[in-house]
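Exercise 7b. Backbone tokens:
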């Protein structure tokens, strides 16, 4: 895989973005996520379902989701 990245895309440990500049890479990521986000309508139910799915799939510790800072983040998002 590392050979493919280096030969095909010019990406290696000395050049992690290949021929793409950091600004261009950020722009491409922003564009990709912006397109995906516009397709979803934010609802509390959808957010809760996605959050639970993320917690379960990634085996997030109960200590993590019980932290006060995490609760503040959720309260901000749900306001």
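Sequence design result:
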């Amino acid at each position: 895989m590392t050979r493919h990245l280096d030969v095909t895309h010019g990406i290696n440990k000395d050049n992690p973005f290949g021929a793409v500049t950091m600004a261009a890479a950020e722009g491409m990521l922003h564009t990709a996520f912006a397109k995906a986000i516009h397709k979803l309508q934010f609802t509390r139910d959808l957010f809760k379902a996605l959050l639970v799915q993320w917690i379960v799939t990634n085996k997030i510790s109960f200590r993590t989701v019980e932290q006060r800072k995490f609760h503040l983040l959720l309260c901000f998002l749900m306001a």
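Instructor comment: Helices lie at 2-9, 22-39, 44-57, 62-65, 68-78. Residues 22-39 form the longest helix (18 residues).
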